[in-house]
Amino acid sequence: MTTELHEGPLEAAPTIAKAKPTWREQRRIRRRRRIWFEEILGWILVPIIVLGCYWAVETAMNAMGTSVSTVVDGVKAILHAL
Q1: Is the pLDDT of residue 10 over 80?
Q2: 61: exposed, middle or buried (Cβ count in 10 Å: 0-12, 13-18, 19+)
Q3: Which of 29, 51, 53, 81 has the least C-beta neighbours within 10 A?
């Protein structure tokens, strides 16, 4: 029983050309990108919407001649009277 030793430079492994992704892999890639995009968009839009709603409520209260703190004090007084 003998072993054959290779003396000399090693041969490079054959390179395998990357095949075109299947339709399922393409769908998975699109879905992953869409999820990341929606997540980033949510982190940007949600604070803007919350601040916009707060601004709208403040503006509406000022137009009626009152404020949020006055309304909260009134609700507390009503609940305390019950």
Answers
A1: no
A2: middle
A3: 81
Report how many domains make up the chain: 1
* Cα 9 from Cα 63, distance rounded (Å): 86
Question: Can you give the pTM of this predicted structure?
Answer: 0.56
Task: Examine residue 52 and state whether it is found in any structural domain, yes or no.
Answer: yes
The domain in which residue 73 lies consists of 23-81
DSSP run (H or E) holding 76: helix 68-81
The 10s digit of each residue's pLDDT in 28-82 is: 999 999 999 999 999 999 999 999 999 999 999 999 999 889 999 999 999 999 8
Tokens of 73: 């004090």
Give φ, ψ of 79 to 5 degrees: -65, -35
- Tokens linked to 23: 């339709």
